[in-house]
Amino acid sequence: MRRRDVLAGVLALAASPASARPPIRHHETPRDLLSPPFVDGDERDLTLADFEGRVVLLNIWATWCPPCREEMPTLDALQARLGGPDFHVLPLSIDRAGLEPVRRFYRETDIRNLDLYIAEDTRAMLALAVVGLPTTILIDRMGRELGRLAGPAEWNSPEAVAQISALIDERKQ
């Protein structure tokens, strides 16, 4: 990329309001992604390969993390709006106490559209190169990382919905 192109991109980004930017900046090229083993709410063993063919928004979180707790309703709303055969929000909890705190949190906060998933904390954080919570990784249909965001976001915002809808629609064109 030429210096002039980089400068033009930076200026365009700076000129747009932060609220209008997509929550996840894409990498220049998709990256391979390791998957830790995890289980779902029925305690079935899974990996990210089980979701290939769909666009996935993988959110690594824990019930003891205040920013994670705040953003979970927005992830629930995003799943309700876009979830289906082409898109899935995968909230991967790293709670050490197992599935019960996650189930309790879902009941207390009226989370209705998100499935339950849990992984061993250290293993998941190392495999996914996570340094803080929440961390959200956008994954393409082939299981590659397109981009990531460290920190919370409003996942049901018009910008997030537009960004993810565009990825979902890529296959349909």
Characterization of this structure:
This protein has about 170 residues and is an alpha+beta fold. Helix content is about 35%, strand content about 20%. It is built from 5 helices and 8 strands. It has helices at about 5-15, 65-80, 100-110, 120-125, 160-170, and strands spanning about 25-30, 40, 45, 55-60, 85-95, 115-120, 135-140, 145-150. An 8-stranded mixed sheet has the order 1-8-7-4-5-6-2-3, sandwiched between helices. β5 (about 85-95), α3 (about 100-110) and β6 (about 115-120) form a beta-alpha-beta unit. The longest helix has 17 residues, at about 65-80. The chain is globular, with a radius of gyration of 16 Å. Residues about 1-20 have low confidence and may be disordered. Keywords: Cytochrome c-type biogenesis, Redox-active center.
User: In which range does the helix fraction lie?
Assistant: 25-40%
Rg to the nearest angstrom? 16 Å
* Spatial order of strands in the largest sheet: 1-8-7-4-5-6-2-3
Reading the helices and strands in chain order gives HEEEEHEHEHEEH
Subcellular location: Cell envelope
Main location: other
InterPro entries: Redoxin, Thioredoxin-like_sf, Thioredoxin_CS, Thioredoxin_domain, Thioredoxin_ResA/DsbE_sf
Keywords: Cytochrome c-type biogenesis, Redox-active center
Helices and strands, with pairings:
Blueprint: H1 3-15, E1 26-31, E2 38-40, E3 45-46, E4 55-61, H2 66-82, E5 87-93, H3 99-109, E6 117-118, H4 121-127, E7 135-139, E8 145-150, H5 158-170
